[in-house]
Specification:
By secondary structure, this protein is of the alpha+beta class. Among the domains are: about 130 residues, OB fold (Dihydrolipoamide Acetyltransferase, E2P) (Beta Barrel); about 170 residues, BirA Bifunctional Protein, domain 2 (2-Layer Sandwich), CATH 3.30.930.10; about 130 residues. Strands 6, 9, 10, 11, 12, 13, 22, 25, 26 and 27 form a 10-stranded mixed sheet that branches. A 5-stranded mixed β-barrel has the order 1-2-3-5-4. Helix 8 packs across helix 10 and helix 8 packs across helix 20. The longest helix is centred in the first third of the chain and has 24 residues. It is globular, with a radius of gyration of 31 Å. The model has no long low-confidence stretch (mean pLDDT about 90).
């Protein structure tokens, strides 16, 4: 509710604006076209000398000349056009142009004429003014920010986000996001008969992995929680007779922020009943992502075949499906559960030759070779700084060697033996190891250790591989196998490679490391936490292990990974209330499971059918399509690294009177 003021309760410092000039801002001609529409039909507009009205913002300050004055308009698409006033133009229009300031909202009317082209331009046009009307002026900050807006709009102060959003990149980003949302709805409703259902944003506090945002109520000690996902509501919907549900859902997690994380984010959430295989969910999701890439970007999606080559993913009629990569193989070959499969960089296990001794829980020595990474005849003496910077690794760094000579290729391991990082195994055939690695001058070698069952994710080499792909773009790419069997060359930056990562462990041991700077994480293998969430079903063949060895149980969990980004994740759910209760009680030791999850157990016990689902990270998907690494670029009003919205300056303090209504007291810093 807006505040009200008694007529004589305060001294008014402002006065009613001039009637004539103010009301003129509300009476203006509507745009007849957009700049893009004129450009696409430029010959027709020029030949007919058709009158055009454009509405938008002043992009650059006008230049006033004795015989020819000109300015620049930017319209709703972020497109620019030059408008001109010549010696035949009315003086009032020239006077208006003289007073124009960047970012003022204007309406311009005139006719289209061909523009004198600069070198490299194929077509161009400009608008000869018949009229111009200022609809709203801009304040003093806009001219101060003009240069920054022109060169690096992403660096505009975040409180001026609306100025960023006026530029072409951000206009395209949010319009693309809108198109993707519409396409997702069309695929799910028209092609797969899903029903869009909204679930509540005021939920209850339940442990699902991340910290929650709590919402106080005016009842003592009673709180809502904003949902981390609609997971429990959508499972209850499966017990409600809706067999195919989806929504483009707002979710909330109170966690540390990165380029791909925000405290509030959006996901495409879906669930399907009466499914007996994860493949049924995967096929629906593949249809979505194929439609997005083909219709929004007009590019193909690829996956990896059994020979390690890229092959085009086809539509449902031809159906070349996305490949599947099991979790253990992903960690062993790539050191991470979301590998960028555009690159064929993988690891070699050296466990037959050496054993790591620094930490007995991490005995396996492994190596990564970057073939031909540098010119051995050059003066380069150190590996790229990114490979050795502590800032790039959450724990220990791998050992990195520049192989400059044949002697380096033969003797690199002696330094690690001297450092007591590892020891040679009895009877190790080191000649065979040399053949395995095939090191040559110009290669870069990285060596590290991992555990037999890798819970560390990413491993040091997994992070090294990510850095190598970034540091050497375009190198070590997988070959593409075309439909006619030929090997093709491709552009790595514009190639989309997807895969499903499957067979995750259902549970992980609880990490007990006291110090995050400890190079080796520690785990309590007698305490378990869900790898995905506690509602995920186990693999049928591992069912008995739930009772005897939960850490060996694999889950029916699947992640969609595209170009090294986890775009979505899902699973088959536990729809049997007795089994779900056993997981809560006997494995996860959730003592108050009835209070936290009793609503779900009741819904499952009333004939809930088998079901499975998935959530696509909508912000991440949109960012990939737009071609940015930050989801902030596809969110209208993102939060900064401290979780603040600088446009409206939230969060804010609340007065004590209001806090008291919610039974909240605040602590002051001592």
């Amino acid at each position: 509710m807006f505040p009200t003021f008694a007529r004589n309760s305060r001294r008014y410092l402002s006065k009613l604006p001039d009637k004539l000039s103010t009301l003129a801002k509300f009476n203006f001609p509507l745009a007849t076209n957009t700049i893009k529409a004129v450009t696409e039909n430029i010959d027709e507009f020029i030949n007919k000398k058709q009158k055009v009205t454009l509405n938008g913002h002043i992009h650059k300050k006008s230049r006033i000349r004795p015989t020819l004055s000109f300015g620049f308009l930017r319209d709703c698409d972020g497109e620019e056009v030059q408008f001109i006033a010549n010696d035949a133009t009315e003086s009032r229009i020239i006077d208006t142009m003289k007073s124009l300031t960047v970012e003022e909202s204007v309406s311009v009317t005139g006719y289209v004429q061909a523009k004198q082209l600069k070198e490299g331009e194929s077509k161009g046009w400009e608008l000869v003014l018949n009229d111009i009307q200022v609809l709203n002026s801009s304040n003093i900050d806009a001219p101060r920010l003009e240069k920054l807006k022109q060169t690096r709009p992403e660096d505009l102060p975040p409180q001026f986000r609306y100025l960023q959003l006026r530029t072409a990149f951000y206009q395209n980003s949010l319009r693309t996001r809108s198109r993707i949302a519409q396409l997702v709805r069309n695929v799910l409703t028209d092609e797969h008969n899903f029903v869009e259902i909204e679930t509540p944003l005021l939920f209850k506090s339940t442990p699902e992995g991340a910290r929650e945002f709590l919402v106080p109520t005016r009842s003592p000690k009673q709180f809502y929680a904003l949902p981390q996902s609609p997971q429990q509501y959508k499972q209850i919907l499966m017990s409600s007779g809706f067999t195919r549900y989806f929504q483009i859902a707002k979710c909330f997690r109170d966690e540390d922020l990165r380029s791909d994380r925000q405290p509030e984010f959006t996901q495409v959430d879906l669930e399907m009943s009466y499914v007996n295989s994860s493949d049924q969910v995967m096929q629906v999701v593949e249809d979505i992502v194929l439609e997005v890439w083909e219709k929004i970007k007009q590019i193909n999606m690829y996956t990896v075949n059994e020979d390690g080559e890229l092959v085009k993913v086809e539509d449902a009629a031809k159906r070349v499906r996305l490949s599947k990569l099991d979790y253990l193989t992903a960690l062993q070959k790539y050191g991470i559960d979301k590998p960028d499969l555009r690159s064929n960089i993988s690891f070699n296990s050296l466990e037959k030759f050496f054993t790591a001794v620094e930490d007995l829980a991490f005995p396996i020595v492994e190596a990564c070779v970057l073939k031909g990474a540098f010119d051995p005849k050059s003066k380069a003496s150190k590996p790229p700084k990114a490979f050795t910077s502590e800032l790039n690794y959450s724990r220990r760094r791998p050992f990195v060697f520049m192989i400059r000579s044949e002697e380096d290729a033969e003797n690199w391991y002696e330094l690690l033996l001297q450092k007591h990082f590892m020891k040679s195994n009895n009877g190790a055939d080191l000649q065979r190891m040399h053949q395995l690695l095939n090191l040559l001058p110009g290669d870069i070698l990285a060596v590290s250790s991992r555990s037999e069952l890798p819970y560390e994710n990413p491993t040091p080499l997994g992070k090294f591989r990510q850095l190598a792909i970034t540091e050497f773009p375009g190198k070590w790419q997988r070959p593409i196998r075309s439909a006619n069997g030929l090997i093709e060359i491709y552009n790595g930056d514009k190639t989309i490679v997807g895969s499903w990562v499957v067979d995750f462990p259902l549970f992980n041991p609880v990490e007990t490391s006291d110090n995050i700077n400890d190079p080796y994480p520690k785990y309590d293998k007698n305490k378990f936490e869900s790898t995905h969430h506690p509602f995920t079903m186990c693999k049928s063949e591992d069912y008995d292990l739930l009772e005897t060895d939960p850490l060996k149980v694999r889950g029916e969990h699947y992640d969609l990974v595209i170009n090294g980004v986890e775009v979505g994740g899902g699973s088959r759910r536990i729809h049997d209330a007795t089994l779900q209760q056993y997981i809560f009680e006997e494995i996860l030791h959730v003592n108050n499971y009835e209070q936290l999850f009793g609503h779900l157990l009741k819904a499952l016990s009333m004939g809930c059918p088998p079901h499975a689902g998935l959530a696509l990270g909508f912000d991440r998907l949109c960012a990939m399509v737009v071609g940015t690494s930050s989801i902030k670029d596809v969110i209208a009003f993102p939060k900064n690294q401290s979780g603040s919205d600088r446009v409206v300056e939230s969060p804010t303090a609340v007065d004590e009177k209001t806090l008291n209504e919610y039974f909240i007291t605040t602590k002051t810093d001592s």
